[in-house]
Write a structure and sequence with these properties.
Deoxyribonuclease I, Chain A; 14 strands; globular
């Protein structure tokens, strides 16, 4: 072997620890996004070109796992982004009035090891035309291990009875798949903070609200509407309906280190009636 080849080989070996450390560091943080795309079916679809803009814009956030809701419109197929080789749809149409699928779609950069779903038995109003459900996948992250990701879109409207029933069924479903793994539960929950529904997820299901944890570390954002609200109508109506919950029961501790509300301005416009939520989870 020539001196030049020997030097090149030794130099490459010296860089290996740096490459390994960088790889491990990158995979110790996972970025999650949940976003209700307002993808109602035709002829209710508003501005069909929105979906191409969503697909083009969401790449800038470089998320590892994305949960979309309301992907009913055929044009929403463009959200199956090539940067995410693994995707999982919720249940499709059923017989009777269930003329729409669940609208749930999860994208992942990591292989999906197992998956399952549960269709909610109760619904109300126009939501009865869709297969409202909860979707689960187990993925294995190098350097982190296996984690659970659940996504849902619960009933809209004011019926506490229906929403409570759906959360009861969601909790029963989640418990069957926990198996001691750290868990992220996200989506459009159609509930506001500090309501009985919110408290059910927080206390009965024992999930931590990632925003609460983040604001504990960053109280300066406690009154910032750009961090808190995910559903707004001009300046008159502000609500938080979209959540990323976590259950830290795995072998490695999990904690949110970044939290943002996204898609509030794309070229001066909003692309959905909801805003997205982005959370970075650090595994220790």
């Amino acid at each position: 072997m020539s001196p030049v080849k020997i030097f090149t080989f030794v130099f490459f070996l010296s860089l290996l620890p740096t490459f390994v450390l960088a790889k491990d560091k990158e995979q110790s943080t996972l970025r999650f996004i949940t976003y209700n795309t307002w993808g109602l079916p035709a002829p209710l679809t508003t501005c069909p070109s929105r979906f191409k803009k969503i697909a083009a814009s969401i790449g800038q956030f470089n998320a590892d796992i994305i949960a979309f809701e309301e992907t009913f419109a055929k044009r929403a197929k463009v959200l199956e982004l090539k940067e995410y080789p693994y995707h999982l749809y919720g249940p499709g149409k059923s017989k009777g009035i269930k003329i729409l699928p669940s609208g749930l779609l999860i994208l992942s950069k990591f292989p999906i090891i197992e998956s399952d779903y549960k269709i909610y038995s109760k619904c109300g109003g126009f939501d009865c035309f869709a297969n409202k459900a909860i979707l689960w996948m187990k993925i294995k992250i190098p350097g982190v291990g296996a984690i659970n990701v659940f996504a849902t879109h619960t009933n809209a409207g004011t019926s506490m009875k229906i929403k409570t029933s759906q959360l009861d069924e969601a909790w029963e479903f989640i418990q069957r798949h926990l198996e001691g793994r750290s868990t992220v539960f996200m989506g459009d929950f159609n509930m506001s903070p500090e309501t009985p529904l919110y408290n059910f997820v927080k206390y009965n299901m024992s999930f931590d609200d990632s925003l609460d944890l983040y604001l504990t570390d960053h109280p300066e954002y406690s009154n910032d509407p750009n961090v808190i609200y995910t559903y707004t109508i001009k300046y008159l109506y502000h609500k938080r309906l979209d959540y990323v919950w976590l259950k830290d029961i795995g072998p490695r501790a999990m904690h949110p280190i970044n939290y943002k509300v996204i898609f509030n301005n794309v070229n001066g416009k909003r692309l959905s009636d909801h805003l997205g939520v982005l959370v970075d989870m650090q595994f220790h």
